[in-house]
Amino acid sequence: MLELCDEDFDAMELAEGALVLNRAVNPETNVSWAEQELERLFKEAELALVHELDEKQKFESFLRLFYHDWAFVGDQEAYFDSSNGFLDKVLERRKGIPVSLGALLLYFGRKLGFPVAGITFPTQFIVQVNWYGEKPLYINPFNGEYVSEHILKAWLIGSKGPLATLKPEHLEATDNPTVIGRWLTLLKSALLREERYTLALRCTDLALTFVPDDPYEIRDRGFIYQQLDCHQVALNDYQYFIDQCPDDPASELLQNQVKAMSESSVTVH
Question: What is the CATH number of domain 179-264?
């Protein structure tokens, strides 16, 4: 189980925190190899960029190294595959999603001295570059391309509707615990799609260590327990959600589910 608090996650790089999370979800995560690979790639980057004197040019060379030489790329064919959320798999496959590729960009970028930060934009994770005295730049970690505020606004409208507006808070740097929390949600969703319920249950249990009474997380746990044939525990979780969120549209559906499960669980001797 995850034993770190928010302060611990903020004291380490996002990629390091992600490995801690990955191992808590799946003990088979190859953390030792991933740490060695991170160090190997960092040394390779140092050597490749040692003769670059201009910081901006050096950063552009770093992006080329990451996306072309190392061939990291967004996984367009299997975006929701859980492998894209386990950092050892991302390093091995050279494929990921914005948050996992962004975590790697931040890890190497900061160690190389670049002014980068992570942002959990409403539509996806992005990386901000803050050159002194200049307007911030934004990078889509999925493909390494710069995105303008105009494009970010278009993303927002596509997600939230035509009345959505780009606000300053949308472009504020995000602390690691917040990113880790969202990462955990992405992992759980992927594992549920793959019907890997034991690992998905670990995700839910981890989330509940941060928010013990979250009715939506408890509802999801009930669904997982139902898939694992732990019907009584599932019933308890469903009933908790119904009691806590009676006006939620899902409550009516769950009431029917609880009734059906209760009837089917009656044992005839």
Answer: 1.25.40.10
What contacts 79, CB < 8 A, 6 or more positions away? 97
Give the C-alpha separation, 254 to 136, whole Å.
46
Residues 6+ apart with CB under 8 A from 145: 139
Apex CA 76: angle with CA 15 and CA 158, to 5°?
A: 90
Instruction: Record the pTM.
Output: 0.92
**Residues 201, 182: Cα–Cα separation, whole Å:** 16
Domain chopping of the chain, boundaries: 6-171, 179-264
Reported residue count of the chain is 269
Residue 44 burial (CB < 10 Å; 0-12/13-18/19+)? Answer: middle
Residue type, position 132, single letter = Y
pLDDT, tens digit (0-9, with 9 covering 90-100), for 25-54: 999 999 999 999 999 999 999 999 999 999
What's the average model confidence in pLDDT over 10-28?
94
Q: Evaluate whether 61 touches 108 at the Cβ level (below 8 Å).
A: no
> Rounded to whole angstroms, how far apart are CA atoms 218 and 238?
8
Query: Measured on CA atoms in the order 65, 67, 68, 71, is the torsion positive or negative?
Result: positive
